[in-house]
Amino acid sequence: MGMTLIEKIIAGHTTQSTVQPGDIVDMHVDVRAARDFGGANVIKNLKDHGLEPDDPSRTFFTFDCNPTGSDQKYATNQQLCRQYANQYGIKVYDINQGVGTHILIHEGLVYPGTTAVTTDSHANILGAVGALGQGMGDQDIAASWATGRVWFRVPPSVKLILRGTRPASVTAKDLVLNLLDHFGANTLLGYSVELYGPVVDQLTLDERITIASMGTEMGAVILFFTPNKEIIDYCSKKAGKTITPVVADPDARYLKTFELDVTGFIPRISLPGAPHHTVSVEDFLGKPIDSAFIGSCTNGRYADMVAAAEILKGHKVASGVVLKIVPATDKVWMQCLKNGEMQIFKDAGALVSNAGCAGCAAGQVGQNGPGEITVSTGNRNFPGKQGKGDVFLASPAVVAASAVAGVITTPERLEEMERAEKAEKVEKVEKVEKVEKAEKNSHQVVLPTVVEGDAWYIPLDNIDTDMIYHNRYLSVTDQNEMGQYAFDNLKGFEDFAKKAKPGDIIVTHKNFGSGSSRQQAVDCFKSLGISCIIAESFGAIYERNAINAAFPILTYNSLKKLALQHGDRLRVDFEKGEVTNLTRQTKISIHPFFDIQMSIYLRGGIFN
Predict the structure, then answer these.
(1) Where would I find the beta strands (DSSP E) of 469-558?
(2) May I ask the CATH architecture of the domain 268-441?
(3) CA-CA distance, 322 to 290, in Å (whole number)?
(4) For residue 439, is pLDDT > 80?
(5) 352-386: string of b/e by CB count within 10 Å (b at 16+)?
(6) Do the first three CATH levels of 5-264 and 268-441 match, i.e. the same topology?
(7) Is the dihedral of CA 344, 349, 353, 359 positive or negative?
(8) Residue 366 to residue 291: CA distance in whole angstroms
(9) Looking at the domain that runs over 450-602, which CATH code has it been given?
């Protein structure tokens, strides 16, 4: 039986000739990187355990979260990383370089068939060139630096075939927003997705990066593209050698195959708080905005800058609106300067920052304030992720047009919107407010293997790491201080930390811990003494972080027979995989710890 793309890459980085879904392997990692976010904690983990980098030539720092140095704590962490890099001869891509995942491609460090891990939850963006990239937490990255390897569970693979004729108005960002509309945040949870078809074959590298960068928002392990000749030639040139890409075997087995016709795809926009909740841009025409942002690892490429410049040329940003533009890398920035896009941006009244992640990282260009309405090209708009206001996600073309119009619009409608009478605008705003109101109303030591505690039942899907532990607390490094911030950004549970008792058990639904790679989203519960979390499924990075930190997490198929109510007394057996509701005298079977999880748990964490 043949292997899928991810199976062949993983097998090529282990001692095994073949692997299959469910196998847990010890995988060699070609590139191991840490950002300014998380880098200091990686160093701390290494020093605390007396470890040193296994191979400095494969080890890198990428400072992309706060390249402006505008935050004192980030600046301190960056300097700590520089000093450590000097000590061990580690390459630093400093604050003048841009987004780390893009740099890995541009510098020829990552190319088809290679593996890479970083503290960036969007490291799977490397699937754009047929490489296996994974975001991991601080402990995982520290372990990879010390050993050059990580344990990895081989995911099941699915095939996604895109057919039909792509409409001229549908950008790469629109393609992925349409995919999010179709699959949601967890239909592809835990899968490696391989994209094929005539539509895929024609995608440029920039377009593939845009689509691959939002695999995390779909819950996928990675979105894989088999490189075409253009991308093979590009990667071969950057790597300084001939690249032979890894491809799936003709007889590879896929758990599922999806076929979608893109002919009916439309320009879409994600509603605030949920990247997967997308609607037609037409539904929000006329929605007033306060600010606009073009950039991020999703849409900070040169092609994105060109698309924005074509619309901004000869226009001014609307009065009262701020347009912020952040190229993904310094090379993109310089290309914009050389070819005239930078002048267009300045003439239009935009604020242009040096390259980096921008609005996705607290303290840098792109953040908004309470009540502020922003339309952004980013990949996430979780509450609080890009500030305290509301963030809509859209393509660079839509964002640029909206910045000029002062309201959400499309390039095709821009001139019409500019001529529209005030009364028409008011009518459209009232329509949007009704849609928003309807939308709002629709979302209404020896470690034990058996624990007991009172249940915190939180019946929600897709609780992301910003809801669990907000990014404004990321500078906290003492685990004992983290508990007080648990769930303070989860609506309805802001007082959780004050009311939770040691031993309490959290029970929730699908995709708990989606979002970023922050270890603090696990450690805050350890700080409070929470005994375990039970969910229908977990975000991939969150699962790894919890297991490696010896924090118990378990999954179930159904809670129905448990008759669970908030506050019920539960007993959980990690080894047998049982939950007993002592209050109601009911019992269900859940998935027990798998062997490596039990091993890490009993020894108190991955480093012990």
Answers:
(1) 505-508, 532-535, 553-555
(2) 2-Layer Sandwich (3.30)
(3) 7
(4) no
(5) bbbbbbbbbbbbbbbbbeeebbbbbbbbbbbbbbb
(6) yes
(7) negative
(8) 9
(9) 3.20.19.10
CB atoms within 10 A of CB 86: 10
| Residue indicated by tokens 């393509």 | 395
d(CA 333, CA 350): 14
Burial of residue 130 (number of CB atoms within 10 Å: 0-12, 13-18, 19+): buried
Which carries the bigger pLDDT value, residue 236 or residue 379? Answer: 236
Residues 383/466, Cβ–Cβ less than 8 Å: yes
**How does pLDDT run across 548-588, given as a tens digit for each residue?**
999 999 999 999 999 999 999 999 999 999 999 999 999 99
For residues 304, 308, 313, 318, the Cα torsion angle rounded to the nearest 10 degrees is -160
From CA 131, how far away is CA 124, in angstroms rounded? Answer: 8
Mean pLDDT on 339-344: 96
- Tokens 């029970």 belong to residue: 507
User: What confidence tier does 295 reach under pLDDT thresholds 50, 70, 90?
Assistant: confident
How many Å apart are CA 329 and CA 332, to the nearest integer? 5
Using CB atoms within 10 Å of the CB of residue 244, give its burial: 0 to 12 exposed, 13 to 18 middle, 19+ buried. Answer: exposed
CATH code for the structural domain at 5-264: 3.30.499.10
The mean of the pLDDT values for the chain is 92
- Location of structure tokens 């016709």: 261
pLDDT in tens, 485-514: 999 999 999 999 999 999 999 999 999 999
Residue 270: partners with Cβ closer than 8 Å, 6 or more residues away: 177, 180, 276, 277, 278, 381, 392, 393, 394
Q: What is the pLDDT of residue 434?
A: 64
Under a CB-based contact definition with an 8 Å cutoff, are residues 222 and 156 in contact? no
Whole-model pTM: value is 0.85
| pLDDT grade for 195, boundaries at 50, 70 and 90 | very high
In whole angstroms, give the CA distance from residue 280 to residue 230: 32
**pLDDT digits 0-9 by tens, 137-150:** 999 999 999 999 99
CA 519 to chain centre: 14
Cα distances from 151 to residues 23, 101, 130, 328, 600, in angstroms, run: 10, 21, 21, 31, 12
AA identity, residue 245: P
Tell me how far apart the alpha carbons of residues 59 and 46 are, in angstroms, rounded to a whole number: 13
Per-residue model confidence as pLDDT tens digits over 64-99: 887 766 677 878 888 999 999 999 999 999 988 989
Which position has the token pair 């400093």?
94
Percentage of the residues of the chain whose pLDDT score is greater than 90: 80
Question: pLDDT value at position 22?
Answer: 96
Q: What residue ranges do the domains of the chain occupy?
A: 5-264, 268-441, 450-602
